[in-house]
Design goal:
- It is built from ten helices and no strands.
- The protein has helices spanning 3-31, 38-44, 49-52, 59-82, 88-107, 111-122, 126-149, 157-167, 174-179, 188-201.
- By secondary structure, the protein is mostly helical.
- It folds into two domains: 1-57, Arc Repressor Mutant, subunit A (Orthogonal Bundle), CATH 1.10.10; 64-203, Tetracycline Repressor, domain 2 (Orthogonal Bundle), CATH 1.10.357.
Length: 214
């Protein structure tokens, strides 16, 4: 096969994979990811289940691909904010609030998709830890730029990012978003302002701080 022919075939295969993922996501929203079968996906695409298995060796791979697609959209939005103009505190505020809004749309409003991401968390799918690392990295990049510009006190940007992400986890973790929805907790906007104030003031590395008594 020529290079041009191989490239065209690769493009067709990528397109077909994307169609399978998009169809699976739609069915997950309509009937739930556990009830959706490979046969259901194949029927919607007017192909045989065997043809679907050419691209995904198991239903679990389709589940992971749909989850990866949803999380990738959140990560791309985060990167757009990281690369944007404006002060670091404005970009950090936008990133956290955007993350909350996108996750709410995907996993709280749409409870069938919530079931999928709940399974991903409980079963510890690798994409979950990858997603957390990517969001940590986006937050770190903004904080580092703020430290370099003088908006934030200088310090360990990676540790600061993990602290901010941890403080805001209730507003982006699908399970906590559902469980805490009716609890009288601070709003995400209030928590972000608290974090920004802490970044301005600076903080100690707690590993080197004296142990608490008792």
């Amino acid at each position: 096969m020529s290079v041009v022919g191989a490239s065209a075939q690769s493009a067709r295969e990528t397109e077909q994979r994307e169609k399978i993922i998009a169809t699976a996501e739609r069915l997950f929203r309509e009937i739930g990811f556990q009830k959706t079968t490979v046969a259901d996906i194949a029927r919607e695409l007017r192909m045989s289940p065997a043809n679907v298995y050419r691209f995904f060796s198991a239903k679990s791979e389709i589940n992971a691909a749909v989850a990866r697609q949803l999380m990738s959209e959140v990560e791309q939005a985060a990167q757009g904010i990281v690369r944007g103009s404006g002060p670091a505190e404005e970009r950090l505020r936008a990133l956290i609030l955007s993350n909350e809004a996108m996750n709410a749309e995907r996993y709280v409003v749409d409870r069938k998709l919530h079931d999928m991401v709940e399974a991903a968390i409980v079963e510890n799918w690798p994409i979950i830890s990858d997603h957390i690392d990517r969001i940590d990295a986006a937050i770190e990049e903004i904080i580092r730029s703020g430290m370099e510009s003088g908006e934030f006190a200088r310090g360990d940007a990676l540790l600061a990012a993990r602290l901010v992400h941890g403080a805001c986890i209730r507003y982006c973790h699908p399970r906590l978003m559902v469980e805490c929805a009716d609890r009288p907790t601070p709003t995400s906007a209030q928590m972000v302002e608290f974090c920004i104030a802490a970044l301005r003031a600076g903080f100690r590395d707690l590993d080197s701080a004296p142990a608490l008594p008792g």
